[in-house]
Each structure stands twice: as structure tokens, then as C-alpha cells.
Write a structure and sequence with these properties.
single chain; about 425 residues; alpha+beta; Outer membrane efflux proteins (OEP); two-stranded parallel sheet
């Protein structure tokens, strides 16, 4: 019995009694594995690579098109000819060969500056891909943070439940000893046993939640779902966040808001491309061809030729049924919509930040209160335990003190988790989440 009491007293001063066998996964390792392995991030990276490959002057239409052509036409002819002299000539299986091959070039040198607008638009599409990658990274890393600290909280609660079970086992053993010497009834033993079973049931339920959270984190890290590990119990909370700083950071770094800014630039270049149709399109043309022809009849049976072709072409849309005016009006309306989307997204981000910040402040206050409550409940349990040892406290009062302390520890760990989650969400919205 003295050993059990000693174990419980050690628990009260904070000695870890939970298993240390499992390998510890640090938060830095979890984030690193996510950045390297997560499917959503890898897909976003590949999408960015595609956007980067598309940013070329050739894709914008600034370079010439050069085509090589080869044409070979063969004819087998069966023919009867009657000449002016009355002579008749029959030709059977005559083969006529015509070969034409060469190189042609077409180079658009002016298109109303459409090619330059297109090139700038491709650059903005690359920026859009980079911002979407950042959004994917922030989202996945935030999920890792949330799950990691959820596991940390559940570990703390499992340690507490293990210690509560040790105390309940001590109480049951004490009740049985008291029954043996005639100082307690069978009812006291049964009540102690029921309370111990309730503690064991609570541990089973928390173990289930803990196992599910580990599967979720393994999925985010893209590794075998049954990989066993534990996380750090330390939850460090930043209580110095200020709403004006978060709003300023979000305006510059929030990926969703930045995406809307980039979409506006893309639409501006789209409008420039539409307006380019009012200008003529001028192209340079050139080519070099070789021609060879063979025929078994006629005055000329074989001929060859070489020619060089050069010139230019210019086209101008004079009238297209007022479609140019319509296209420009539509592009301008779409540009107005992108500005409205910017304003809407900015308001959404500001609203989310203001709401989350209020929750953050409330959670900080709640956390401070729960810390005090946990200290009071711990002191109350220590006093009750001493009285229980000398038999001056009824078992039901001891159980109440035990439950109060357990609930206080759970509320404290939950308050820590909620506060940390608020902090993570605020940093994610502000675009300043560390990874």
C-alpha cells in the first residue's frame, strides 16, 4: 500500500508515468514530411512547373513559325491520243511524277501588342500557380499543426487517466482491506469497483480517439497508416497576437486574397488582347521550294525548278457585326467583377480574422481560469487524499475530489488545445504560419 501511495504522490508532483517506448515525432519532422510527401502539395508543385514551362516568348506568339513540306504525287496513266495527222498513240501504264518540297516561314511582327499582353499574362499565371501552391502548403501544414496538438492533448489526458486509474485501484484495494477487518461494507467495495471500471471505460474511449488522430496524421504525412509514434506534450501558446498586425499581414500575404489580385491582372491583360483586334496584324512571309516533274509523254518529259518566295501580309478587321465592341464590353465587365471579388474576399478575410481573434482572446482568458481551477482541484485532492488515508473522509467525497481534479485537467488541456488552434487559424489566415 505504501508503494501505491508513493506512486500517486509522485504523480501529483508531475512525474511522467506514461510509456516512453514509442518514438517521438517532433513538430518540425512532421512539417518536413508533409512538405515532402503530401499529395496535394506535390500536385500543386507540378501545376506550378507546368505554368513555368508555359512562360516562353514562343507560347506568347513572338517567334516565327517555320514549316517544312514534302509533296509527292504519282500518277499511272492509261491513255489513247489521236494526233492532228491522224496518228493514234496508246499509252499504257505511264507514270507521271511530281515532287515539291521546301521550307516556309511566317512571322507575325505586329498584332496590336497582343503578344506582349499574352506574355505578361503567362507570367501572372505562373504567379497564380505559385500562390496556389502556397495556399495548398498553408492548408496542409495547418492541418498537421491541428492534428499534432490534438494528439499532444490526448496524450496529456491519457497520462492523467492512467494516474486516476492508479488511484482508483488504490481505493479499491483499501476498500477490500477495510472489508476484511470489518471496517467497511460490501457496498463500499462495489462502489470502488464501479468507479474503477468507469475510469477504465474512459481510457478505452480516449485511446480510440488517440488512435484515430494518429491515423489522420500519418495520412497527412503520407506514410504507412499503422506507423506508431508519440508526439511532444509541450504546447507553446503565443499570447501576444494583435488584430491590426494580423489584418496588415493578411492584406499582403493571405493566399486567397493574393489569388484575387492576380486574377485581376490576368483579366487586365485579357482586355488588352481583346482590344488588340482593332489593330492590323502584319506578318512576314518567306519560303524556298524545289519542284521536280517527270512525264513520259508530251513535249517536255522532265522539268526541275527552284523558287524563293518572300513578302508580307496585313489584315485588318473592318467590320465584324459589332462583335469587337461587344467583346470589349464583356471583358471590361469581367474586369469589374474581379475587383468586386477582391473586395469581397478582403471582407471575408477581415471578418474571419475578427471572429477568430475574439475566440482567441476568450480562449486565453479561459485558459488562465482553467489553470487556476486545476491548481485548486489538485490542492483539494491532496488534502482529501490525506484525510482518506486516516479514514476521516467518506469514499464518495474522495471520489468527488478525484473526479473534480480529473475534469479540471481535461478542461485545462482542452483549453490549451482550443487556444492553440485559434492561434494556428489566425496565422493561417494572415499567411504567416511558419513552415
Amino acid at each position: 500500500m505504501k508503494k501505491i501511495l508513493l506512486s500517486y504522490i509522485i504523480f501529483l508532483i508531475g512525474f511522467p508515468v506514461w510509456s516512453q517506448i514509442q518514438p517521438v515525432l517532433t513538430l518540425e519532422e512532421a512539417v518536413s514530411l508533409t512538405l515532402e510527401n503530401n499529395f496535394d502539395i506535390r500536385i500543386a508543385k507540378n501545376e506550378l512547373r507546368i505554368d513555368q514551362e508555359n512562360v516562353t516568348i514562343g507560347n506568347a506568339g513572338m517567334l516565327p513559325n517555320i514549316n517544312g513540306t514534302v509533296t509527292n504525287n504519282n500518277t499511272i496513266l492509261n491513255q489513247t491520243q489521236t494526233q492532228a495527222s491522224g496518228n493514234e498513240i496508246e499509252i499504257d501504264g505511264a507514270q507521271n511524277v511530281n515532287i515539291n518540297y521546301g521550307v516556309g516561314i511566317e512571322w507575325t511582327i505586329f498584332d496590336g501588342f497582343r503578344m506582349f499582353a499574352r506574355h505578361n499574362q503567362l507570367k501572372e499565371l505562373q504567379n497564380l500557380g505559385a500562390t496556389e501552391l502556397k495556399l495548398s502548403v498553408l492548408s496542409r501544414v495547418s492541418a498537421v499543426y491541428q492534428t499534432y496538438f490534438t494528439l499532444s492533448t490526448q496524450q496529456q489526458q491519457l497520462k492523467m487517466i492512467d494516474s486516476i486509474i492508479s488511484v482508483s485501484e488504490f481505493r479499491l484495494k483499501t476498500a477490500k482491506n477495510r472489508l476484511t477487518i470489518g471496517k467497511a461494507s460490501k457496498l463500499e467495495v462495489l462502489n470502488a469497483e464501479v468507479d474503477l471500471n468507469a475510469d477504465l471505460s474512459a481510457k478505452i474511449q480516449l485511446n480510440e480517439q488517440y488512435s484515430i488522430s494518429k491515423v489522420t496524421l500519418n495520412e497527412l504525412l503520407v506514410r504507412p497508416l499503422d506507423t506508431d509514434f508519440k508526439v511532444s506534450d509541450v504546447i507553446s501558446i503565443d499570447s501576444s497576437l494583435l488584430l491590426p498586425d494580423l489584418l496588415s499581414s493578411a492584406e499582403k500575404q493571405n493566399p486567397q486574397l493574393q489569388i484575387q489580385y492576380i486574377n485581376k491582372k490576368i483579366q487586365e491583360y485579357e482586355l488588352k488582347q481583346v482590344k488588340a483586334n482593332r489593330f492590323p496584324t502584319v506578318s512576314l512571309l518567306g519560303g524556298y521550294n524545289l519542284i521536280r516533274s517527270q512525264t513520259p509523254f508530251g513535249f517536255v518529259t522532265e522539268s526541275t525548278g527552284r523558287n524563293f518566295v518572300y513578302g508580307f501580309s496585313a489584315t485588318l478587321n473592318i467590320f465584324d457585326g459589332f462583335n469587337q465592341n461587344r467583346n470589349e464590353k464583356v471583358a471590361k465587365i469581367q474586369l469589374e467583377n474581379t475587383q468586386l471579388q477582391i473586395e469581397r474576399q478582403a471582407q471575408i478575410v477581415q471578418s474571419q480574422l475578427a471572429t477568430l481573434y475574439q475566440s482567441y482572446l476568450s480562449n486565453l482568458s479561459l485558459l488562465e481560469l482553467e489553470r487556476k481551477n486545476e491548481g485548486i482541484a489538485k490542492q483539494n485532492l491532496e488534502i482529501t487524499l490525506e484525510k482518506f488515508k486516516i479514514g476521516s473522509v467518506a469514499p464518495i467525497e474522495f471520489r468527488t475530489a478525484q473526479e473534480n481534479y480529473g475534469n479540471a485537467v481535461i478542461r485545462l488541456s482542452s483549453a490549451e488545445l482550443q487556444t492553440k488552434q485559434s492561434e494556428i487559424s489566425l496565422r493561417e489566415l494572415a499567411g504567416s504560419l511558419s513552415f
